[in-house]
Design goal:
Two copies of one chain form a homodimer. Chain A has a single domain, classed as Jelly Rolls, CATH 2.60.120.10. In chain A, strand 7 (54-67) and strand 8 form a beta hairpin. In chain A, strands 1, 3, 4, 7, 8, 9, 10 and 11 form an eight-stranded antiparallel β-sheet that branches. Chain A has a two-stranded antiparallel sheet with strand order 2-5. Helices cover 9% and strands 44% of the residues of chain A. Chain A is mainly beta. Chain A has one helix at residues 121-132, and strands at 6-7, 13-14, 17-23, 32-39, 44-45, 48-49, 54-67, 73-76, 80-83, 89-93, 99-106, 114-115. The A-B interface holds A 1-3, 22-23, 29-32, 34, 52-53, 55, 57, 59, 77-78, 80, 82, 84-85, 102, 104, 106-107 and B 1-3, 22-23, 29-32, 34, 52-53, 55, 57, 59, 77-78, 80, 82, 84-85, 102, 104, 106-107.
Chain lengths: 135, 135
């Protein structure tokens, strides 16, 4: 739906993903950044949190969202994820399916995301197994 | 992509549209509301403005965006509209095409939209003619 953006940094992503910054809000008048992220199968971002929270709108494919210490949630087109401020989490594609979401980072005046290291293959496989058990 | 929501109020819409409030943000932690709006052909909202601005992400169909005193802009899937605070405008479907956008109202703490009356048939037809001249 939106053009593929820049390749996501391998510093904070595993696998291949693209980020299209739809609303950079450089002057801060919306206090809100909006972007489209396309994940190839198996791609996911590192554990992270946002001081102002984050909202995800799933537009295509199949993926997962997991908060630290919780069971992963399976995501499909039309799903919405509300991630409160400072909640550590990751999101990404299913092993065999691409995944696209719009992301919204509100309260950008509160600062940038904090990053906590990669989602290991073991963590990812456990999340995929949990997610795949959900209807 | 998202479920059709509630029928939009005829107090501030002409024609038929549905609004699905994806992120109500009742407790204000995101300072941001997110919704999906489906317009039937010819449907549009009234002239209005938002004290915190508004962002539109076009996901389907063909429509128009117009600011008071300016030429209407034709909108298609993948287009993004950034509407600064207090700028009077309307958006809606083309005469012969449905139109769907995600809407984001940031800075919700600044208050609700202000409404300035319907987009008349003459205004709408002029906008459609201007928009249809754009490639």
């Amino acid at each position: 739906m939106f053009a593929k953006g820049e390749k996501a940094s391998s510093n904070v992503f595993i696998g291949t993903a693209w980020v299209n910054l739809l609303v950079p809000d450089a002057d801060g008048i919306y206090d809100c950044q909006v972007y489209d992220v396309v994940f190839e199968p198996g791609a996911r971002n590192h554990w992270h949190s946002h001081p102002g929270g984050q909202l995800l709108l799933i537009t295509q494919g199949m993926g997962f969202y997991q908060e630290r210490g919780k069971v992963a949630r399976r995501l499909r087109e039309g799903d919405v994820v509300q991630i409160p401020p400072d909640v550590e989490h990751w999101h990404g594609a299913a092993p065999d399916d691409g995944f696209t979401h719009i992301g919204i980072s509100p309260n950008t005046h509160k600062g940038a995301a904090a990053w906590f290291g990669p989602v290991t293959d073991e963590e990812y496989e456990a999340a995929a197994n949990d997610g795949n058990r959900q209807v």
